[in-house]
Amino acid sequence: MTRSPTSATLPPGPERARAANEIAARIDRIPTGRFHVRLASIVGFGTFFDGFDAISLAVILPVIVKAFGISLSEAGLIISAGYLGQFVGAIAIGMLSDRIGRRRAFLLSLTIIGVLAVFCALAWNEQSLLVFRLLQGFGLGAEVPIAGTIMNEYLGRKNRGRIGVIYQSLFSWGLFFAPLIALLLTSTLGPGTGWRILLGLGALPLLVVAVGLFTLPESPRWLAQHGRVEEADTTVARMEAEAAAAGKHLDVPPFVPPGEDRGFSPRELIRGRYGRRTALLVVLWFTAFFVTYGYSSWLPTIYVSVGKLNPTSSLTLTVILGAIQVAMCYVVAWFVENVGRKRSLLYGFAISVVGGAFGFVNIVLLGNTTWPILFATGIIIGVGIIFPATSLYVYTGELYPTRMRGFATSVTSSFARLASIVSPLVFGFLLDTAGGAGLVFAVLGVAALIGALTMALGGIETRAKSLEELSQ
Length: 472
Fold this sequence. Notes:
The protein has 18 helices and no strands.
């Protein structure tokens, strides 16, 4: 939906606050329907290719090392450049989304991803690939948190967690398909051509941009927050009409107090109630993805160097574990809506603690380094960490008001990007010089334990509550 030049914009004040809360209350009572499916199809296609692009370079890195004749250290710089771009992009475009709208920021992030994917595929040396990957990272880092914010702001309180996690599973599907497509391309077209086509496939999000320019509506919550109530009402009325036409019952919108209508200062993020929530989320994001990137980056290498498997067998186990994690996304979706966000996150971290302890005890204390033990350790850690990895985007958006939700989600989730830079380096050092796989699993367990304790002591339950209620 584009802004009509005749649409009235309410000035800041009680009337605008009241109108914004009425829009939010109407959204909260709308059951999931065709409108949400169309929205998730557009936003989710972009998120799928965000996941695909995020791991595609790592998947074909050995081929690029050979093609450009570079060292592993130089290859590591290319990987780190991409993560650095994601860290910066998550914060910068996240802040922009609170100013220019979710729709524009989302389409901007996909445009960056798609255009730079073409440049990455055409890279002529390691320096050009590093620069292009750095720039593409701006879009990769911003897309998922902004897309998660869009979904959060369209979903009602009754199904926000379940649908949000199911939607987020599309990122995991992207991670899962990237190595399969890489294997297909390199085996049929040859490594020299296959890696370029794989990176070039990352331009497909430009199709989402083309479709989204005409069909993706702006978040009604964001519109109402910025005084564009008529536009917000048009979108919500369409959602209500589709739900009614499908025979779905619409409850009477509950009364929500107007609250205070004011702008947003970045300082709010580190002060008072929101400061405490930010501190909680920073720890959760960092620990969850320290574990995620740590074990996913090095587990295939551990299978080969410690478990004595060949690379093909290692890739097979990696694909199997990826399939298990994708399936677990739907288990997590049930948990967050029926058990609650806090306990789901807590249980997930706790399972990963068990996995880390299992690996440490078997490798260090029992001297058992067979591949079944390593694979079992990977499964336990992977099954556990998928709980926070898929539900944190939903949970984060629930802890902040609309005026700062995009920026807050992007800033706190950027610590996952920071973890993605730090974690592989730490575990590479541990494997190379300081104790091997047993110590790696011990550190993974400790990181998960920190996440579990943080959630147990400071976590807030958000299940079945409106976004406006949670922001009070």
